[in-house]
Prior knowledge:
With 357 residues, this protein is an alpha+beta fold. The protein has one domain (3-352): PPM-type phosphatase domain (Phosphatase 2c, domain 1, 4-Layer Sandwich). The protein has nine helices and 16 strands. The chain has helices at 3-12, 76-93, 99-118, 165-168, 205-208, 212-221, 225-238, 252-258, 289-293; strands spanning 19-23, 29-34, 44-52, 61-69, 124-132, 138-142, 146-150, 157-158, 189-192, 199-203, 245-251, 266-271, 275-285, 303-308, 335-344, 349-352. The strands form two sheets. Strands 9-6-5-4-3-12-13-15-14 form a nine-stranded mixed β-sheet, covered by helices on one side. α1 crosses α2 (76-93) and α2 (76-93) runs antiparallel to α3 (99-118). The model is unreliable at 282-296, 298-338 and 353-357 (pLDDT under 50).
Amino acid sequence: MNSFQEKIAAWLSRASPDRSINQCFGIPVILATDIGLQRSENQDRVAALRIRSKASGGRRLIAVAVADGMGGMRDGGRCATLALSSFFYALASYRGHDLQQRAAAAIAYANVEVFKFANGKGGATLSSVLLDHDLRPLVVNLGDSRVYAFGRDAKVERLTRDDSFAEAVGGHGRELLQFVGMGEGMRPHIQPVPATVRNLAITTDGIHFVEAATLERILSHANELKSASERLAALARWCGGPDNASSAMLDVQSLLQEIRRGEEDEIDLWDSFGYLTSILIKDDINRGENRATNPSAPPQTAAVHEENSLSRPEGKEKAASKKSKKSRKPVEPKENIQLEIQIERSPNSDETDEDSG
Length: 357
């Protein structure tokens, strides 16, 4: 794992309250997570990524994703963190490709990284919505987290199919046939978002275990994204809160406008607890033959130079730059990224620790 990826992973796995909702400043996205009433650990991860870089030819990207660690397997929380941090890192690395290739490369890299950690004995689901400068959003899905299309008084439509025995082969049970970290044979579902869709909801099974008709009524009658997020989280608790419950709510049409804005060289990250910005100082990406011919190959564990600064009242402290060892694998591209990272709690996050049944 390279240094930038490690920073994302550390940020996603930091100590956090049992539940929180964050109305992301700068993008029309609501991120929420809740440990639930019956679990001692939250193994869900929910986050949003925005890349704005003149150095990459203006190929901006917004990605919103949830990952759900598989509780019946090893280190579910760690696998979810690794899946999401690897996915985001690869999206940042493969800016030279179209969105379909970029999505396939990112989830393939996440699968490799989680498999290297857990050797197939642990894993995570991953569902994401991606938008770039081409303004044709994609859904990426693996496992049994879900993506729903909805809008005020509009029909709610599930855009994904679970990789479970029940839905994949018509059997019984919720055991997953596919997940991030399974190793060879993974076939992610990547599809365009219908042009007429206004809003999208990404949910873990701690949300959508409730009766489908009830979930659909909440989504179709919510006046705003935050109301939908709050009501689904409350509903999960009222129904017993048997699992971690996480969601991401997106205003797709507003995001399509947002993707056009901004000339800064920076990477922004949000989760349900806060906000992190990485100012992209230098981005020299070698788009070599291997990357062009095989975009799904995992990116190199790159040499990453970083200046790290945590927001503190007394000022910023800069750490010395470090170089990680370059991989010798011939199929992996080289790249050199310099970053200055600032971390702060989002002023829009709503955190609480008390339980409500």
